[in-house]
Design goal:
3-stranded antiparallel beta sheet, mainly alpha, single chain
Length: 112
């Protein structure tokens, strides 16, 4: 990433720009909550050269969704599972839509 222009990194949702402390502050939670999400394998932060956890904007959005569920009384393990299932459903729906488009294009190309 060192040769990547700064603007590319700032626009990259997956760039690990946030320290654990900053991420926790932004989410209004504790570093322990972020560690728990890592232990539940919902998010896996990258590590800096010094071994410190670094989070991307994408990971912060996932963590914010987990916090929302936990704040409503959902146990953290269940919240993580819900988010994983939501993500899998969204991906399956995206793939299904692609198949439908391809099938429709095939019908359009064949004159039907």
């Amino acid at each position: 990433m060192a040769d990547s222009p700064l603007s590319d990194r700032l626009d990259d949702d997956d760039y690990p720009a946030y320290t654990m402390g900053r991420a926790a502050e932004m989410l209004g939670t504790t570093p322990g909550f972020l560690r728990a999400l890592g232990e539940a394998r919902l998010i896996t932060p990258l590590r800096s050269e010094g071994g410190h956890r670094r989070y991307s904007r994408y990971q912060l959005r996932i963590a914010a969704r987990a916090r929302e569920l936990v704040d409503k009384g959902t146990p953290i393990e269940a919240a993580c599972r819900i988010i994983i299932l939501e993500d899998q459903l969204e991906e399956a729906q995206r793939i299904n839509a692609e198949y439908r488009r391809a099938a429709q294009e095939g019908l359009d190309d064949s004159g039907n």
